[in-house]
Specification:
Blueprint: H1 13-21, H2 29-39, E1 44-47, H3 54-69, E2 80-83, H4 87-100, E3 108-111, H5 118-126, E4 130-133, H6 135-143, E5 154-157, H7 160-165, H8 169-177, E6 184-189, H9 194-203, E7 208-211, H10 217-220, E8 222-228, H11 234-241, E9 250-253, H12 257-269, E10 274-277, H13 283-294, E11 300-303, H14 305-308, E12 318-321, H15 328-335, E13 345-351, H16 356-366, E14 371-373, H17 376-380, E15 405-406, H18 415-424
Parallel strand pairs: 1-6, 1-7, 2-4, 2-5, 3-4, 5-6, 8-13, 8-14, 9-11, 9-12, 10-11, 12-13
Antiparallel strand pairs: 14-15
Helix pairs in contact: 2-3, 3-4, 6-8, 15-16, 16-18
This protein binds adenosine monophosphate.
Length: 425
């Protein structure tokens, strides 16, 4: 059965009204497949990255299920628990729950570390139906007996792969042990490494498997280019690219906090409004930066992978990989931030000679070659000490002179690079 409208899904009327208010007309593929099974009470293993509409896929049936019973919110004893790896993601999930449930009387609160626990505890004591939490702070509050999980009917583990990457597995297991066995459980993950599969086997009973493959819709809509460039020339290349106003809302990824700060400082110096977010920034500072970016006051957001998880900002025109990620999956997560909700996007990657093996890994994962832009020699001779890129003779920035060519042909890097990447693989 193909589902072409939300009204066919049988969701409660106030939810449908909220979807109309959000201007959602058609369920995304993951929503069309997940929502009927979840309304049926099934457990679910969802393989999907952000940008597919997975949050609504689980939020809508949970809101429906909770509201159907018409129970009053109990103090300190939620009926739905959503676990997310980062504060940013938890906050965004909370925002979505609030939007979809705005014509209902459900109570929810978001719990995460790095801030005072007092308002969170106050909210719990006032009564909650839904708790959205990062594992560390939740466990803290459980240990302090500020909340109990004995009434949990719905459990969601979102971005389970990232949760395990970040070392939350023991916290997650402790949290699971405090919950009733009779509950509906959902696990979402962009990738399915063995540890995630093992965890899903422990949590889920006869789950429906819903898979929206990473290569499928979002990635195919993204133009993906690579610049082969010396490390020292990357700063100038970035500044030069940003001369083009088409790069209207840009996320720049760096591998380390230090590099993220350096890139942001350099851009600020060259007059580009920039914010950086990474693990060393306070929660308040990260929220401020995100808000400024979302509101369009800041053009460029420089982020590390972990800080950027789950960032949900529409109309990102370009994702720039200032440094390639050493895990290929991170590339998919990164570039998935552009081309949201039907828009087209562009991902530009800067690859220095030492990163060639990462590029190879990425191309293997996504089963396609990135398009190589620019001429190798002029890239490496680019002077990184100049604050701004010098325009070449023709008036056109150098990086636009070279005709894009597929890296599948001879431009795939010198033989030495291929040998290196084969060894690294
Ligand atoms: P997610 O994959 O949950 O991070 O969702 C990606 C984005 O798509 C979010 O900004 C959602 O608000 C939006 N979205 C989710 N479902 C729909 C839909 N059916 N129609 C339009 N936008 C949607």
């Amino acid at each position: 059965m193909t589902i072409s409208s939300f009204s066919e899904l049988g969701l409660a009327e106030p939810i449908q009204r909220a979807l109309t208010a959000k201007n959602y007309a058609v369920p995304t593929p993951i929503q069309a497949r997940a929502i009927p099974a979840l309304l049926d009470g099934r457990d679910m293993l969802g393989i999907a990255q952000t940008g597919t509409g997975k949050t609504a896929a689980f939020a809508l049936p949970i809101i429906h299920g909770l509201s159907k019973k018409g129970e009053k919110a109990r103090p300190r004893s939620p009926r739905a628990l959503i676990l997310a790896p980062t504060r940013e993601l938890a906050i965004q999930i909370g925002d979505e729950f609030r939007a979809y449930g705005k014509f209902m009387h459900l109570r929810q609160t978001v719990i995460f570390g790095g801030v005072s626990q007092k308002p969170q505890v106050t909210a719990l004591y006032r009564g909650v139906d839904i708790v959205i939490a990062t594992p560390g702070r939740l466990l803290d509050l459980m240990n302090q007996r500020r909340l109990g999980l004995e009434s949990v009917e719905f459990l969601v583990l979102d971005e389970a792969d990232r949760m395990l990457d970040m070392g939350f597995v023991r916290d997650v297991r402790k949290i699971l042990a405090a919950m009733p066995k009779a509950r509906q459980s959902l696990l979402f993950s962009a990738t399915m490494p063995r540890e995630v599969l093992r965890l899903s086997g422990e949590i889920l009973t006869d789950p429906v498997r819903v898979e929206v493959t990473p290569q499928a819709t979002p990635i195919e809509r993204i133009e993906q280019n690579v610049y082969h460039v010396a490390t020292a020339a990357k700063g100038a290349l970035l500044a030069s690219l940003l001369d083009d106003p088409a790069l209207s809302r840009v996320i720049v990824f760096a591998r380390t906090k230090h590099r993220a700060n350096k890139v942001a400082e350099r851009l600020e110096r060259s007059g580009v409004s920039t914010e950086a977010i990474h693990g060393n920034k306070s929660q308040a500072a990260r929220q401020r930066a995100l808000k400024a970016f979302r509101d369009g006051q800041v053009r460029v957001l420089v982020a590390t992978d972990i800080a950027a998880r789950g960032i949900d900002v529409d109309a990102i025109s370009h994702v720039i990989n200032f440094e390639l990620p050493n895990e290929s999956e991170s590339y998919v997560h990164r570039i998935g931030r552009t081309a949201r909700a039907g828009a087209n996007g562009v991902a530009l990657s800067f690859c220095d000679p030492a990163e060639r093996s990462y590029l190879r890994g990425i191309e293997n994962l996504i089963k396609r070659k990135l398009t190589v832009i620019g001429d190798g020699p002029s890239v490496s001779s680019f002077d990184s000490d100049k604050p701004k890129a010098k325009k070449p003779q023709g008036g056109k920035p150098w990086h636009k002179r070279g005709r894009p060519r597929s890296s599948g042909a001879k431009s795939d890097g010198p033989p030495a690079a291929s040998r290196r990447s084969r060894r690294a693989a």
